[in-house]
Amino acid sequence: MTFTVAIVGRPNVGKSTLFNRLVGRRVAIVHDMPGVTRDRREGDATLLGMDFRVIDTAGFEDATGDSIEARMRRQTDQAVAESDVVLMLIDARAGVTPLDRHFGDLLRRCKTPVILVANKCEGKAGAPGLYESYALGLGEPVPLSAEHNEGMAELFDALMPYAKAAGALDDEDEEQEPFPDEIAVDDEEITTEDRPERPLQLVIVGRPNVGKSTLVNRLLGEDRMLTGPEAGLTRDAVTVEWEHRGRRFRLVDTAGLRKRANIDDPVEKLSVSNTLEAIRLAEVVVLVLDQAAILDKQDLTIARMVIEEGRSLVLAINKWDAVDKPEEALKRLKDRCETSLPMARGLAAVTISALTGKGIPRLMDAVQDTHAVWNRRIPTSQLNRWLEEVVSHHPPPALPGGRRIKIRYMTQTKARPPTFVIFASKPEELPESYSRYLINGLRESFKLPGVPIRLYVRAGRNPYANKG
Q: What is the predicted pLDDT for the residue at 177?
């Protein structure tokens, strides 16, 4: 069992820095500008051997109504309600502010227990704020510096009673040494069959305000992400564990990607970096398009980036319920894909309405089908029978002097994406057009639609020649 810890506090007290420290990597955007975090972010944390779930929240704002701040506040309230214990952070160098007192009063009245944490206590500058924080009435504060990794042992001691109460830790766990078979081994030594099926990493990308967070909320069946008419609400790439028809997913909502020339906000630059990193780690990427501007220049830039990274791609055309002439729009989309994205011919494109949920089951079917194609392996014997046939039907062009390139052998070196190597007599002389011919043939003959295919030409002889 595990337990859940929410990190709350007013803006810019170091919540995301502590979150990154606990999860062991820089996943939440950290910046001096207040209010950078908007959606709540969850991660698996480890503190001196204690494992738990941690939630990074938006800054506690004293706001009501339907403003962005009020919606952020409701997300934080939900995180507090779902947690076993709350860490309320204050900035010890700034001292206790009226907003700290206001939220301290609110947390004292909630059912979830609270641990007061005085952050930024490195050196002597935080001492006055640390002593002042006793007046909040939340018990003895835990002094630490998330940025400098100080005070983590004291935080461990403060969390210990709640870990035991949740059944996540007991005295035997504290004293017991791991048995040899419990020690993690390198991933490369574990076969897929030796471990449970890992979650499928599904990343949602697109331009700002096309409905990415609305789609994620619809998939999850709850208002998990902050949504609204304002563009650029999502800043962090937020990951949520989710299950669909018995299949586990790791669902990632990302910040909208604009043209690089239009970005001068430093926080937006960090958001873009987070999104690009999420794409690099993805298995399937869903590119959300707005029906009013299907596959415009920026959409094509994002799609090509996904394909160049070797990720599998599915197009989701959102707000389809507002289309006047659906047949014309679909034809325009098909023509655009064929002319501008030939390197992933056969891309799955699904029309949806994230707001109403229409088309969502078809989208998830397309995601799983594309993922299966992206993982496909083709036996070497089938590949070489196919290669012999296509080369005899359409041999490589002759070299100067009438000599021809001899293509001897072919194998698939890996999946994710499907990657093939051809051994030829003069690899450097094989035209790019002939490689494209082979890739198109592979796609059609072995049913590999919509995924990038990598083909490399190497010098060498058939490794199975003269063996027998």
A: 39
- Write phi, then psi, for 456 (nearest 5 degrees): -120, 140
pTM across the whole model? 0.63
Residue in the block written with tokens 């990794």: 149
Is there a binding annotation on residue 9? yes
Query: Does the annotation place 13 within a ligand binding site?
Result: yes
Residue 457 has pLDDT above 70, yes or no: yes
49 is in an annotated binding site: no
Known binder of ligand: residue 110? no
Q: Is 257 annotated as ligand-binding?
A: yes
Tokens of 143: 């002094």
Kindly state the tokens that stand for 187. 């991933």
User: Can you list the domains of the chain with their CATH numbers?
Assistant: 4-183 (3.40.50.300), 193-374 (3.40.50.300), 380-459 (3.30.300.20)
> Was 432 annotated as part of a binding site?
no
Q: Write out pLDDT tens, residues 276-304.
A: 888 888 999 999 998 888 888 889 999 99
The owner of tokens 């499907």 is 418
pLDDT, average across residues 436-455:
94
Residue 421 assigned ligand-binding role: no
Residue 212 annotated as binding site:
yes
